Amino acid sequence: MSTKRINIIKGAVFLIISLYLAFTFNESLSNFVGKIPFVGWVMGSIILRLVISLAFARGVQLIYKSITQNRKSVLVFLIGTLVGFTIVFITQPIYSIDYGNFGTTDRSIDFDVLKKEADKEIDLKSKEALVVFFSTNCGTCVEISNKLGKLQVIGNTPQIIALFGGEEVDAINFMNQNKGTGFNYYMIDNDLFFEETAEYSFPSIFLVDSKGNTIQHWDGSLMNYSAFDLINSYK
Fold this sequence. Notes:
Helix content is 53%, strand content 11%. By secondary structure, the protein is α/β, with parallel strands linked by helices. It has two domains: 3-91, no CATH class; 111-232, 3-Layer(aba) Sandwich (Glutaredoxin). Strands 3-2-1-4-5 form a five-stranded mixed beta sheet, covered by helices on one side. A hairpin with a 5-residue loop joins strand 4 (204-208) and strand 5 (214-219).
């Protein structure tokens, strides 16, 4: 096989890999952080974007050099890097809230009341926990449940305590459909307490210490890479 054909094949492989990573960004990032946990979500997302951009550029460069026999292809590489970054930006946009901690510390849960209102005893087991108030009919709750379920599978969370109002069958179906089967769940019959503690915003996510004191609180839409890294530090 000629060198030209080999380089075209190599270039195609680089392009395929870069496009695959771009279109499976979240899944690829989860796998990356799961296998190399010390990298973290913030740094991992930056590295993955860089890998996609450079792999795409290298693929374009190899194919260009093979077709044109032109060894001066630095400009092609730079243009390919820009195109690669644009592709991953389109498939996985960078939002202004993706980086930086947007959580608060001024929210709290009255665990004494919570334990009375739950259908069974809530035990923090002397460990940190994520306590999440879910509504089974909100889109952001579905998104967060899936994200936390993935984090739990790769070992990047403390214990997860899911709280639900309404009917238990709806809560079970919600968890089964949204990667929540590993959550410890509790039903809260007191709707007023449930909604007031969540401040009528779902999901309402509390990272608490072993005594139930709030370390950090997030509204669901503000759960980002920085929040994942903070949560990971308490796993």
